[in-house]
Design a protein that fits this description.
With 211 residues, the chain is of the alpha/beta class. 37% of the residues lie in helices and 15% in strands.
């Protein structure tokens, strides 16, 4: 268990892409994510993490992916494979049920919703960095989806910008156990300052890990 101290005035929870298309049983991506999500008890751990962070008086930032429209990416010359696939399936389509917040995981009063990210990084071409700095945030805790894409890319970006980064390994999911292993056991230790379970994080927040 990591012994990181989470400063109350400068720690935030960053929740990435809490959309129906990822988290709901009828969501477009749920069939691909469900096996891993169920194995880590994803929904319960996202809820538990959110609750513990709120109880500790820390802010929550919602980091949403771009909500697709049929004409998006026209004229683009260098779409990534992920962008191309997301556009093909119209994930999180504008004005669709799949592009709505999963019940209970959307923003609540006081939460901050940053601009939608077009690729995997929640920092690239958004206001996330300025929002964090203006709120005095130095420590960021990442949860949400997907572990080896948006979570990993955003968390790496955060580390490069000088933030203290925590990954919560069972409050995220991926399309395979191999992807989860790569995200948390191979790649994560190269940049993350702490890689913890939900239970470990909650214990830290409850027993003196906040100052």
């Amino acid at each position: 268990m990591d012994e990181t101290i989470y400063p109350k005035g400068s720690t935030a929870l960053l929740l990435i892409d809490p959309y129906n298309d990822f988290l709901a049983e009828d969501g477009k991506m749920w069939p691909a994510l469900s096996e891993v999500a169920k194995s880590v008890d994803l929904h319960a751990n996202i809820s538990r993490t959110r609750g513990a962070v709120r109880e500790a008086g820390m802010p929550i930032f919602i980091l949403p992916h771009h909500r697709h429209k049929p004409a998006d990416f026209e004229g683009w010359t260098h779409l990534t494979p992920s962008q191309r696939a997301a556009h093909q399936y119209q994930l999180f389509a504008v004005d669709s049920w799949g592009g709505e917040w999963y019940p209970g995981f959307g923003p609540e009063p006081g939460d901050i919703v940053v601009k939608e990210h077009w690729g995997a990084s929640s920092f690239a071409n958004t206001d996330l960095d300025v929002q964090l700095r203006q709120h005095g945030i130095t420590h960021v805790i990442f949860i949400g989806l997907i572990a080896n894409t948006c979570i990993e890319t955003s968390a790496r970006h955060a580390a490069e910008l000088g933030y203290h980064v925590t990954l919560v390994r069972d409050a995220t999911a991926a399309m395979s156990s191999e992807s989860m292993h790569a995200a948390h056991d191979i790649n994560g230790p190269a940049y993350a300052h702490a890689i913890v379970t939900t239970a470990e994080l909650v214990q830290q927040l409850n027993v003196g890990g906040v100052q």
